[in-house]
Automatic annotation (TrEMBL):
InterPro entries: Alpha_CA_prokaryot-like (IPR041891), CA_dom (IPR001148), CA_dom_sf (IPR036398), Carbonic_anhydrase_a-class (IPR023561). CDD domains: alpha_CA_prokaryotic_like. It comes from Enterococcus camelliae. This is carbonic anhydrase. The keyword Lipid metabolism does not apply. Belongs to the alpha-carbonic anhydrase family. It comes from the Bacteria.
């Protein structure tokens, strides 16, 4: 189903549920995303239930424009994470501006979503919030093995380059942040704010750089977990 939606006016977030029955049904899921997160709220800390393990490797991605942002889509789904003994394969990387989640009351300038899907078609999203910094390395210079082929919209890289070195994170159950906003989606939001060189965005058209973040949603007493700092080695096994 191809239903036109956006981030303002009659097709903006407050009207998504009115655009079609599919969107209306997704909006009925009670625990919507994104939400505001805080280190000072009541959190379930370092629970085994919230452990996430990364198995990322270098692979080829194609660059596509759709759904109001730029996406990097892997060809062969070689990278994955494990959550509660279930394997979720990386299926998409995209970004929102400004950030959709807010940590300790502070939104950031951009948020990357690394979207994963299990064989049972369940969704898990890893979110990384970033602040713009012209002195930060550009994405294509972070990993010396990265290969960028801009004319053909092809990139070869390890998705680990998007992740912070200090991997402490919030975990909660929510929804998709774009229509149909269905759930449940397992969310993992890193609390370490990455420094991001905005030069990376220069290749994209202006319409992809406009505001494309969904407003914050109510928490509704849902459980929020927090896993303390781990090194990348601790979370890769």
């Amino acid at each position: 189903m191809d239903v036109e939606w956006g981030y303002e006016g009659k097709r903006g977030p407050e009207h998504w549920h009115e655009l079609c029955d599919w969107f209306s049904e997704g909006a009925k899921y009670p625990y919507q995303s994104p939400i505001s997160l805080s280190h000072n709220e009541q959190l379930i800390r370092n629970s085994e239930q919230a452990q996430l393990f990364f198995h990322y490797q270098k692979e080829q991605f194609t660059e596509k424009e759709f759904k109001n942002t730029m996406h990097f889509v892997p060809f062969s789904h070689e990278s994955y994470v494990i959550f509660q003994n279930v394997r979720y394969f990386l299926t998409d990387i995209h970004f929102h501006r400004p950030s959709e989640h807010v940590i300790d009351g502070r939104p950031q300038e951009i948020e990357f979503h690394l979207v994963h899907t299990s064989q049972q078609q369940k969704n898990l999203v890893v979110a990384v919030l970033c602040t713009f910094d012209l002195t930060a390395p550009e994405l294509d210079k972070i990993d010396l093995t990265t290969e960028w082929d801009y004319p053909n919209h092809l990139q070869t890289f390890s998705p680990a380059l998007f992740l912070p070195k200090e991997r402490s994170y919030f975990h909660y159950t929510g929804s998709l942040t774009t229509p149909p906003t269905a759930g449940p989606v397992q969310w993992f939001v890193f609390d370490h704010i990455q420094r991001f060189n905005p030069d990376f965005l220069k290749e994209f058209s202006e319409e992809l750089l406009e505001v494309n973040n969904r407003p914050l949603q109510e928490k509704k007493e849902r459980k929020i977990y927090f896993v303390s700092k781990h090194s990348s080695a601790d979370l890769e096994r």
